[in-house]
Every structure is written in C-alpha cells, then in structure tokens.
Amino acid sequence: MSIDKIWVLAEVADGKPITTSLELISHARSLAGTVEAVAYGDATGAIAGTLGEYGATSVHDVGDLGGALPGVPVAAAIAAAVEAGNGPDAILFPATYDGRDIAGRLSAKLDRPVLTNVVGLTAADGGLTTQHAIFGGAQIASARFTGEGPGIFVIRAKSFPAEASGGGPAEVVAAPAPDTGATNAARIVARHVEERTGPKLDEADVVVSGGRGLGEKDQYALIEELATLLHGAAGASRAIVDAGWVPYSHQVGQTGKTVKPTVYLACGISGATQHLVGMKNSKNIVAINKDQDAPIFSVADLGVVGDVHKVLPKLIEALKARS
Amino acid sequence: MNVVVCVKQIPDPAAPPALDPGTKNLERSGKLILDDSDAYGVEMALQLVDTAGGGEVTLVSMAPNGETSGLRTALAMGAAKAILISDDALAGTDALGTAKVLAAAIKRAEPNLILAATESSDGYTGTTPVQIAELLGLPSVTFAKKVEITGDSVKVERQTEAGYDEVESPLPAVVTVTAGVVEPRYPSFKGIMAAKSKPVETLTAADLGIDASQVGAAGARQEITDVAAAEARASGEVVVDEGDAHERVIQFLEQLKVL
C-alpha cells in the first residue's frame, strides 16, 4: 500500500480551523502528494482559504449537522466516501473531544483499527509508522497497521509545526452525511462558554500549574495570581481536577492539554506519568516541590526543593513589587 | 432503569509498568485491580438506579486469566452482577476487537444505559466506548461531567474546549464520564462481604458468537514495531529553599526574557 492521498479532519472553533488541524495538514504534505480536508458546520469562505493556505487542495464539507454531535454524521460521511472508492489512504484526526469520537465511530463503521495518542508519523515501507510516547514519555513505541487501509490516526496537539505552504483556497466539495437514523439522535440543546481571562492554556507563553501539594482547593488562588502576574495561563494536574478543585479545562497531561510554553512552572506537582506527557516538551521547566525525590525534578531546568506555601507568596510579592 | 458499566481491570498503576518482550503489549499477567477511572462510572450508575427507584447495575469486563478482583471491588460498591469475558484467544486484542466483545456481552444484558470511563488509565486509547455505540447502533455522548435521566432520555453536560454543551439523547445510549463527575463511595465491610457471593458470569468469545479471527493478536491488524528510550531531558539546577529561592526563580525568568 502506498500513501498517495491523506485526509485531515479540520475542526473549526471561533470561525477558524484549530491549530492542531493545521499542524496535521502541514505534516501530511510531507507524507502524501494529495492532502484534503474534511470539515463540518461551515467550511466555506475564510475557512477554505486557511485550509488551502496550509496545503489542503480541497475540503469535503459535511455541512450543517442540525445540532447533532459530530461523531455519527461525520464518520458516516467519511465512510460513504471510502465505500464509494473516493477515500484516502490515511485519515488524520486531531486528539480533541470530537476528533476522537469521529475516529472511533469511523473505525467501527469501516471495521478498521485506529491508532490513538500518536505523537509522530513517518513514511516507511510504503505505509505509515506512528510514534507514541509511553511511560510518561520515557520511551517511544512505534506501531503500524498490518491490514487493509485506510489507516485511522488520532494525533496529539503540537506533534508537528503548522507551516503555511501558500496555496490558494481549498475547493469546497459537498460531502453530506447519509441518514444514520436513531444512532444520530443525540442533540446539543445549549452551549455554555466558561469565562476565561488571559491567554489560552495551550497557546500561552507561560503556564503556571498547581497540584496536590497545594494542600487545599483555596490555595489554587496562588496559581491563578502568579499566572496573571506572568501574563500566562493557569494549569492543573489530574489529581486536583479529579478532586474537584478546578475545572477539567485546566488539566495538563495525558488526559488533558498538551502544552509547550516558553516556561512551565509546576507547583506542588510530583510529576506522575500522566502529567509529564502533557508538559515535558516545554522549552523551560521550573518545579517547586517539597519532596526532593519527586519525578518532576528529573525534567526541571530549575528545581526548587521547598514548600509552595512559602515560595509562591514570596514570588508573588516580589513580582508585584516590580510592576 | 438497568445500567451496564464497562470496567477495566488493570495492572496496579503504583507498580512500574512493563511490556511483554515478545509482543510488546502491556504486561497484564499479574494481579489486576479496578481502574480508578471506572469507579466514577460505577458510582454514577448506582446513583442513577437509586434515583430511578428500581433496576440494577451490571458490570461488563474483559480480562485475562478469569481475573475478578477488580470486579469484586465494583460489586462491593453496590453493582448487582458482572459479566466477565476471559479467553486465551483474546490475548492481544486491540480497541476495536475489545469493543466487539464488550458490545456482544452488553447486548445480552439489554440495558437502558451504558456507562464507561472516557479512557482507561493504562492504555489511554479512548475509542472503545464510541466503537461499542457504533457496533450496537446507539447514540453516544462522551466526556460527561453531569448525567441526568428524565423519562426515556438522558441529559448530559458534555465537556468542550470552551466550556460545556448540554446534550440530550434518547435511551438506550452510551455515555462516557470524566473523573470527578461524582465522588465514588468506598465499599463498606457489608458490601465487601456481599460481593463475594454476587454472580459473575464468565464467558468465552465463542459463547458470544465471536469468530476467533476477529479478536486476539491475529484480529488486531496493528503491531508495535519498536520500543526505544526517548531522548532524555537533562535535569538542571536544583536549589533548596532557605527563604530566598523565589529570587533565583525571578532571575531565571529574567534570563528567559519572560520578565
């Protein structure tokens, strides 16, 4: 099997394709001669323009989903194209809530396996080989499909750079979803946007994260204050998200966001595998933890063995004095 | 209100993980425990059945060597019974193969609702629940942070990048719950004792009418070709706080021109 054509799911948020989809389109150009996008909701105008600029020659537009969750209808639309013989050799999905849903549905529909948590994708022996960070990123496993295509891949954010190729707008091709009946019965009845001040967690230059070492929920205010002073975003370990101290949207790690800021400050975080996967590629890491044997120190450029309840207030005080 | 909860029994996360040197699959031959992530689904199911005023919670799990210790934990929490699929032919089964096996077992239980975690804590594939939904022809709502049953439908607050969506789906449906959606109860002594005599039906793939070529390593159609050490990140300077460590942090941030 050779890889000639790759499709990339172009998820759209705030009227633009998400960065991870642009990263996947950029990387797909190095793997296949033809790169096309799949989109839903609205794939016309500026969106088709951006997708083209990053290298997609066309965009298969599933169209308005009528309030349905994307998983069922978008997987059905892609499956219909594959079954009609117009499908690609590989389909790349961003590891987002909806990307994972669509990939899973498509896998069952086409009876093809799916490789998730991909952090690298290379061409080898006429096919594609994936890389996966395992055991907290200490080891890299490589994998490949052995059966018939198309290969279905779910790829983590920031695995590749997004680089525009200067192409013209992608040609919009209608790819309506076939009727999937009662399977497609889940409906979004209302959307809620949580208020956020400062930069997005996965785009911020500085990320300040807190963990169990903060001791109690109220102490997370220290993390938020420090993040604000550094014009950064506030993150969290899974432990304190599970404990209900902060919303899931703050979670950094395997199950949460992948971040690569200029500086990552881990405060009261021990550095469980789950957490390291989401932040160990930060350009610089500062860790503050009272346990000198905490695994977080093995990835820190600057480690402070100390109590976050003592160090953070002084740090905040000193930063306030400068401004 | 009958609820099936898909649960996974995994190697204790506190022990260092290992790969089978031959297959390079995760080593799962030792003692297994209930995946922490599944305790939330079990608790949610117990609460929903309680609110509905009737029905029961059935666990469905696939594990090697007839392993039941994780299932006993969930039974001790209050689940009524369990279906365990354990079969040497299932070794090396991938996510889609697992979904086929679990879907066939779930069908037998005829539930109104199927709950699962968003992903397991050992493999993190995260696609099995929607694959089950597709195989059963059911709607699914993933990443639920709140679940409510009203009559014949389920209302879910689904986590999104920007906040959350309110989603409604008719039953039966598959719903995956995030950790923290509810506070899992600790099994009581009475619960632990009662769990010992609760029914666990053990089935093979053949019992479910599943062809051996669809599952196991042969049915996986994917292989791990290599495992290598990642480029290690050198650890840097470590200072012990003696009341002035914040100054070193500020200096470091200045060097990086963040300040």
The gist of it:
The complex is a heterodimer of chains A (323) and B (259). By secondary structure, chain A is of the alpha/beta class.
Sequence-ordered SSE layout with sheet pairings:
The complex is a heterodimer of chains A (323) and B (259).
Chain A: E1 5-9, E2 12-13, E3 16-17, H1 19-28, E4 34-39, H2 45-53, E5 58-61, H3 71-83, E6 90-94, H4 97-110, E7 114-118, E8 120-124, E9 127-134, E10 139-145, E11 151-155, E12 171-174, E13 187-193, E14 206-210, H5 220-229, E15 233-236, H6 238-242, E16 263-267, H7 273-279, E17 284-289, E18 302-305, H8 308-322
Parallel strand pairs in A: 1-4, 1-6, 4-5, 5-12, 6-11, 7-11, 14-15, 14-16, 16-17, 17-18
Antiparallel strand pairs in A: 2-3, 8-9, 9-10
Helix pairs in contact in A: 3-4, 5-8
Chain B: E1 3-6, E2 9-11, E3 32-34, H1 36-52, E4 57-62, H2 69-77, E5 81-85, H3 95-109, E6 113-117, H4 128-136, E7 140-150, E8 153-159, E9 163-170, E10 173-177, H5 189-195, E11 200-203, H6 216-220, E12 222-229, E13 237-240, H7 245-255
Helix pairs in contact in B: 2-5, 3-4
Describe it:
With 323 residues, chain A is an alpha/beta fold. Chain A folds into 2 domains: 5-184, 3-Layer(aba) Sandwich (Rossmann fold); 206-322, Rossmann fold. Chain A has 8 helices and 18 strands. Chain A has helices spanning 19-28, 45-53, 71-83, 97-110, 220-229, 238-242, 273-279, 308-322; strands at residues 5-9, 12-13, 16-17, 34-39, 58-61, 90-94, 114-118, 120-124, 127-134, 139-145, 151-155, 171-174, 187-193, 206-210, 233-236, 263-267, 284-289, 302-305. In chain A, strands 7-11-6-1-4-5-12 form a 7-stranded parallel sheet, with helices on both faces. A 5-stranded parallel sheet of chain A has the order 15-14-16-17-18. In chain A, a hairpin with a 4-residue loop joins strand 9 (127-134) and strand 10. In chain A, helix 5 (220-229) runs parallel beside helix 8 (308-322). The longest helix of chain A is centred in the last third of the chain and has 15 residues, at 308-322. With 259 residues, chain B is of the alpha/beta class. Chain B has one domain: Rossmann fold (3-Layer(aba) Sandwich). Chain B has 7 helices and 13 strands. In chain B, helix 2 (69-77) packs across helix 5 and helix 3 packs across helix 4 (128-136). The longest helix of chain B has 17 residues, at 36-52.
